[in-house]
Amino acid sequence: MGAGLQPTREGDVTFACDAPFQLEAGGALQPVAIRYAVYGELNTARDNAVQVCHALSGSARVADWWPEMFAAPSTANGGPHNAVFDLSRDCVICANILGSCYGSTGPASTNPATGRPYGPDFPVVHVRDIVRTQARVLDELGVKHLRTVIGASIGGMQALQWAIDYPDRVGHCIAIGTAPLSAMGLALNHLQRKAILLDPKFQGGHYPAGQQPADGLALARAIAMCSYKSAELFGERYARKANRNGEDPLRSLHERFDVAGYLDYQGEKFEKRFDANSYLVITKLMDTFDLARGYASEEEALRRIRAQVSLIGISSDWLFPPEDVLSLAKRLQAAGVACNYTEFESAHGHDGFLAEMEAIAAVVNGSVEARRTCARG
Description:
The protein is an alpha/beta fold. The chain has helices at 62-65, 127-141, 154-165, 183-197, 214-228, 231-237, 258-271, 276-287, 298-303, 322-334, 352-355, 357-376, and strands spanning 9-15, 21-22, 28-29, 32-39, 49-53, 91-95, 110-111, 116-117, 146-152, 170-176, 308-314, 339-344.
């Protein structure tokens, strides 16, 4: 519904000009610029703000990558039933994460100490750092309270961290396909980074602009796509068919099956729009997410939450298996958090939150209604 929708306002918030922004892992950045986009307007009470937290390769422009979550502006009475964001009611805000290559300070940014891009010298960033930068953006925009903070995958990690670190600023936390990463997830991310590091064009991370390690980054993305989809979907779409361009995998070592052609195509598309050093930083960010970070234990961290929390697992997700999301929901409940769990049925794997936007929007709306019911009760 929101395809082609432009932000009402977008820009940059720059801070840490006089003193460094200290990071959880011990590094620091000075200055820091965070790119943001706003859709809709804050109401007079400034209580209609919705913070969207994007996933690995997303940007601040939410309507570009989650368009079906927006009600069509021309639709009367709040838009279609399943739209999550209605700009007649909501002010939707998203900030590009630290370390990305879509406007915020990241490895491709100039290091003021050297006058050259940070490259591999960009420090390790944790989810808590990301959320602190988002809080600075909201402060600049005059937003003190979020009606809802929502995200999927790495975005869901941020949403949960918001609820823990800023308990008085969040009313409802919605996290989709999110939990601390399992050993399998850590293994897959390690292989993706290894693919980039082994590309001769990586040059220790000091590759020139426009000459990044494209083959390594494309291979990393292809590995990731295997974890984002499901065996069921691959079987249904590709089975053991030969590549649709006429290759014969029975004849040559180098000719591909259809699923291989799909993975190669996804890698080639991705390396044209993303930066390899940013990919390294953000996958490490994903690895290091730990709800206990900064607190004595996970339980202590969870007990800080005052928001209603809605966790949504994806039935065919094997990067963040639904049983891991359900386990997290049970730990939240045990810590006294008002938490509900919903499982989204999809054959699309982890990518279900992007591949079936209208369906996931309906599930999210069910979580929102459940919160409203609890509030009325």
